[in-house]
Structures are given as structure tokens and as C-alpha cells.
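During the second year of the project, the team shifted from modelling isolated chains to modelling whole assemblies. The rationale, set out in the original proposal, was that interfaces cannot be judged from single-chain predictions alone. As a representative example for this report, we include one of the complexes processed in the last quarter. Its constituent sequences, exactly as entered into the pipeline, are reproduced here:
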Amino acid sequence: MSFDASYNEKELNAVGTRPVRPDGVDKVTGRARYGADYNMPGQLVARVLRSPHAHARILRIDTSQAEALKGVKAVVTAADLPDLTDGDASLFAILDNCMARTKALYDGHAVAAVAAIDVHVARKALKLIEVDYEVLPHVVDVDLAMAPDAPVLDETIITKGVTPAPDAPSNVFAHSEFGHGDVAAGFAKADEIVERTFKTEQTHQGYIEPHACVASCNSDGSAEMWVCTQGPFVYRQVCADLLGLEVSKLKVTSSEIGGGFGGKTHVWAEPVALALSRKAGRPVKLVMSRNEVFRASGPTSATSIDVKIGATKDGTITAAEATLRYTSGPYPDTWAETGAMTAFACYDLENVKTVGIEVLVNRPKVAAYRAPSAPMAAFAVESAIDSLAHKIGIDAVDFRIKNAAREGTRSSYGPVYGPIGIGPTLEAAKAHAHMSAPLGKNQGRGMACGFWFNFGGQTCTDLNISADGTVTLSVGTVDVGGSRASLSMIAAEELGIAYEDVKAGVADTASLGYNDMTDGSRGTFSSSMATISAARNAIAVMKQRAALMWDIPVEDIEWKDGQAHAVGASHDNLAPLSVKDIAAKAGNTGGPIAGHSELVADGAGVSFGTHICDVEVDPETGATRVIRYTVIQDAGKAVHPAYVEGQYQGGAAQGIGWALNEEYIYGEDGRLQNAGFLDYRIPVCSDLPMIDTQILEIPNPNHPYGVRGVGETSIVPPLAAVANAVSDAVGVRMTHVPISPPRILAALKAQR
Amino acid sequence: MTTIAVSTTINGDDVEYLCHADESLLDVLRNRLGLMGSKEGCGTGDCGACSTMLDGRIVCSCLVLGAEAEGREIETIEGMAHGHDLHPLQTKFLEHAALQCGICTPGFLMAAKALLDVNPDPTEEEIRFWLAGNLCRCTGYDKIVRAVQDAAAEMRGDAA
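Output from the structure prediction step:
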């Protein structure tokens, strides 16, 4: 059935309220089952052997002693995962990352795995596997990896996107370019120009739940997997491709997910668990340790970014330019391209140019992390904007308002914007009490803006009406932060019934059609669109059933407030039929009542936010405390405002951690030195103040209720907001995050 | 490897089990007793997802040996509600949306209960420092702190 997704302003009853989430009681009583909370009969325990070297050729792997150990049921190496990728480079990278084939490319790269009857035997077996390595020179720093004398990770890589093409291989996979106008002409018109280089360090998503799965391959070619993932359908496809399984014979069930933030959109050890199960003929449980999570999953890119922005004295930006160098780990990817697209997306620019440069290094394969690539670009651009405002002598908020993108602006990455929220978030920031609150000694204030695209994508839902009139809603997007609540609310809204009468659940891959994963802030946006469509289809069925029950034409029936009404003078004496009334008679009027929807959720509205941050810096130690923080963001329409606030607060906290503390620290030997939560310090409760939020609602014209994605944008501004605040407090521009105490002390010392 | 016989009390019930000498209390709870509400986020005492009460004191059960539980009293998240009656902290966590993914929630609830046992009227700062051993990556802690404050007020009988 056709579905009109365009925005239609109307009064909403369920949407906008704050009910308790349907999965809540299970989660506060310990009953919710996550990746590691599932077991199968006869299950084996898996452990993975990992490279201790940053870069090494694998000369020989001898697994014979491990295989001979009593209790070991299978040992696998790359030989057990033959290359079925058929020239698909990105799929090959996933395969090679799961299990190193000819070279170990980073500290922690998997080289072999065992499945045994218990963890003691598995650990003992790992020690019996002999690997001969030829250690090779390594490089982990983004700028050093681009140097002419850098060790080259992959001799087949000739930089793409450069003319003429280079004649020698390097660690630079590709250049990409965005923009419009003439930046040279624009800079010539500028009265003031700021030009600086910024660096950001590599961070991890830091989900508290390590990767975990239970894989079971059967003798008949079918297989099952229980796994913590943001996308069971995507995991199914990738695992089936890598193992040569028929897609429909692999059933993937997503567990409750203990945080993902993008890190659980990529497969890691799941194909290895399946390979072990296939070889052993028994189910295999594989749970990563925290050390493995840090060394071999996640992280985001480390970056080095040059920014140049020019403006006239009246505060008009005349040109903006950035070159963004992003690490992608040891495989080609397009993270810098995304950074280059987002860098200047907040502004209305006549002349703009960005270049993204993808750089291979001996670090783990980069994974998406909440608005991937955007926070680093925003850090560089929003820091430079702040400097330029100071240089011109104009208020930093006013400067941004003057240059903010608006409806009709051609974005720096190409498309022309519809109605957007950057201007309103800036106006709200200007008017916010936080902006004018007094500051004390050693304190500073900063603000910054951020942008994220938001995704839509393939989506389907099933909405089934039970005999008692209650509703089960099956969705295919994993619930990472309350979407079962928001989607139940949407179904209740559309059907006109109580929230309590709807129960939303996440379906496994055998129970529902394909869904893209929960990424790009698409969970509530796309599944709500499919839910609205499914509900409308169910209403159409219920109108037909009511017509049968009343024996009147279906054209004479109107759906209002959760009931079928007979319209027209001849039907005046017919009392309305509720969902419950119609459901009760379903067996006699044509059988079960359901609404389905399969669609591509187009038109995800872009999202903007503005953050304000106050810090206090101890000049003796260089330690920084965030003392006040405000997030202002456009939600389009906040379906469940408490969980929208939660997304704003959570993203801000992650960004504050990135800005002040978090970084991967490598030794000279290329080994990760802080692969644990003690040394890789994410913000704890005592590090943070309350995080104030302000939700703006500028309806997305492409969603019936105006919903935009809300999950990711909140991590984009904090790096710059904190950096601008620290720079304000100490009087020195901070250009390298995390702004750790040693970096602040070094900056203060250099200033003296 | 030989095993050790342990007699202990868990959530008020007598429990006996066998465990290896190097097995953590967390592994015993999860793998031998089916009490999987306690979570392993790190296994090194840094994240607090396995927070458990041992003789009235909050501990990381990943840092306690199963054998050390002999003759002692353990409380886990599974014992926090009485039947269908949720503890006020559990109710307030739901009302305040103080959880997103929920993996850290059992540990936070156990730690917060331990706080309110000794300090029924904590300041925001006291709550923040008491809960500093429990990591949450989703919420930014704001709603967790508010839920604990609200639960404390309700348990004291303060007017809302």
C-alpha cells in the first residue's frame, strides 16, 4: 500500500509523553539477557590468540599441540576461513581483520582461535599454538604514516583521487574533495584569516558490554547465532558471505545490547565463532575480554587537520578550507571523506573546500563511533571559528549566527538544506541563562556547534493485533537506548489506543524481513515510519472488518480515536467499534488482523546542535573540571523526551571524555599501553556536572510527525566546546585533544 | 583441577557449590548458579558492572574468589526486589529513564543501595563520588544521580 510520509501537523497524545519503557523492569531486576547471558546445550568455550606485534609477517602457525590437548574440540586459523570475497575489498578487509592471513597488522590482531570444553583448557591450548613471526617496521601516527620513509602496510595501495596517480604505493588510500566557489578569491577578500593545524587522538566507543556471541552450526547446513549487535540482519549477511552459508539458513538473534555507539555495527569475532562451531560440530560461546575489546575492536580515527578560515571585519566568512587526515587502521576506508563532508556543514559559505585523506596505520580497524568522523572535524573548525571571532572582535555566538546555514543554503558537501535547526539552536544558546552566568577565577566558557546527516534506509515492521485488542509490534532495528518505548508510543498514537496496550520487541532474522542496522540515528526515525505505515495498513484491515460486522460499505467507515465510526445519516444508530471489539470478532471476519510495512525510509532530516561548556582549570596541575554544560539540539519531534535528553547527555559525556581524557597510547614497540578502563579513563560520575538539555523541535518535513534522528549529533560539538572553554580559561589556544593535564601545562609553559 | 566446596548465603538462601580455586565469585554467580544479573564489563574491578554485596559491603565480584564466599552473606541484583515489589531505587531508575542500554544498571542499583544503607540523605557530590566506581557510557550520569536523589527522598518519607 502506498504510504505518504510527509509531515502533517496535528495534535499528538502518546507522542511527547514519558512512559516507562517496556524493557525496563527486566533491566532493573537483572533479567534482561545480553550477549554473554545465553548458553546452549553442549556449548564449548572459545578463546582467540592475538598478535603481540604491531606489524609482522606470519611465517608459520603450528596448532598440532593445541589440537592434541584433551578437551580441545577445534582450532582455527585463516586456513579455516577461506577467501570467498571474490574481489570485494571491503569484505576482504573484514575477513582479514577477523583472522590475520599473511600479516598481523596491529597489536591484538587475531591469528588463531580454539574451542574447548572449558576456559582452563582453552587458555592452555592458546599457549600451545606456535606462531613464527617476522617482525616488520610499523607506524601508528597519522602524520608519520604519510611520510615518504614510512613503512608501507599494503604494497598494492596506490592513492586514489589524485591526478596524476602516484607511481609508488603508500599508506594513503585515497583523497576526496568537497566544496564550491573559489576559496583563493574568497581569502583575497578577507580582512582576517585564521590558519591552524589540529590533532585528535584515537578513542574507543567504550561500551560496557564486551562483544559476545554463541554460534551454532548444524550438520544440515543451518546455523544460529545469538549476539550483541546493532544489526542482526547485517551480521547475518556478512557472516553468511564470509563462511559461504546460505543467508536464510543463518538465523541471527540480537541479544539485549550493552552499548554499541557504532562499535557493534561491524563483525569482529562472530565469523570465527561460527568457523569454530562448524569445525567442532558443537555450539561455541565467544566472549571478548576488555583487553581484547580495546586492542581489537572499535576504535575511531586519530586525525590531523589543517583549517583556514577568512572573514571580513563585519563578520562575514569569505572562504573556508580544510585538509583532514584520518587513520582508518590497517585497511582502506572512507572516514576522512565523511569528516570532509561534515566539517563546514553548519555554515552558509560562498567559497568552501575540504579534502579528506585516508591513511593506513598499524592500529585496529577503525569502526563507526557516534556521528563517525564528525567530532574531529568540528573540533578543528569550531576552534578556528572561535579564534577568528576573537581576532575580528565579534561575539562568538553572533559570528556563528551571522554565518549559519539556513533553509535553501547549499551545504558544503553538496545538497541544499530544507528546514534546519542550526540557527534556532544558536539563538537559543544566545538567550540561554548559561551564556551570561558569571565565571570565577581560572574558569572559562566555550561554545560550539555540530552537524550530523542522519540515515534512513531499509526498514520493515510487523504489527499484529491480538484477540484481546492488544498489539505486538515487531521491529528489526535493535533498541540501543529506548526505541521500543518510542515505537510503542508511535503505534499507540497511530491506532488511537493506550501505550500500555502495545508491546514492541526486536525480531530475529528469521521472523522479519531485512532491516538495516541501528546506526546513523535511524532507529526511531526509520522504524517509526514503518510502524506508522504498518498501523495505517492495520487500520485499513480493521475498517474492512467493521464493514463486515456492520454489513455496510467500507467507504462509510471512518477511523477516529482508536475506533471505527459509521458515517452518514443511515448509520446513526451504530455505536463505534473499538480495536478490542473488532479484534474479538476477527476469527469470524477473515482471521488474524495485522499490518505490515516494508519501505526505504527516505528523508532523514539533518540534525544540528549547539553546546555551551564552562570549565575550571587548575594552573598548578593542568587538571580540568567541567563545571557546567548545556546541550541545545533540534529533535524534529521528541517522541519520548526523557530518552531524547538521555541521548543529548550521553553524547555530551562521551565528547567530554574525548576532549579531556581518552586516548589510545602506543609504546615505541607499537603495542597499546592502556587497554583497560583503569588506564583508558572514560568519565565517571564524579567527573561530571548535571548536563542541562534544551530540546528544539523543527519538524522534519519527510516524517509524518516531524521526527529527526537524535542519537549522534550530541557527540559532535563537545570537543570544540571544551577546547574553547579551556582556551578561554588559560588564555592559550588548545589544538590537540585530549586536552590532558600534561598538554595544558606544556601550553602554559610555552606561553610564559 | 580439583574443586573447593563452598557453603554460603545468597539473597537469604543457603547455597552450596563447587568451584575452582582461581574462579571469581562473579563466574560462580553467572556460570554455576545462573545468577546472570551481575555483569562482566572488565574483569579487573574497573567498571562496577558486577557490584555485589558481601557481608554488607559493596564489592566487585570479579575481584572476589568464589571460595572466599564460604560462610558469608551475599546479595545480588536478583534479590533486590521482593517478588513483584520493586525497590524504590529500581522504580526511580525506570521513572527517571536512568538507563539506556541497561548493562551497568544492576551494578549501579547495588552500589546506590549500599550508599543509601549508610547515608539516607546524600548530597549530589556524595552520590557522585560513591558511584564513581561504576561506569556508565550511555547516560552521562545525570538521570542516574537524579533517580538516586529521588529514591532517597522517597525512602526518607520526604514529601515529593
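The mean pLDDT of chain B is 97. The longest strand of chain B covers residues 3-10.
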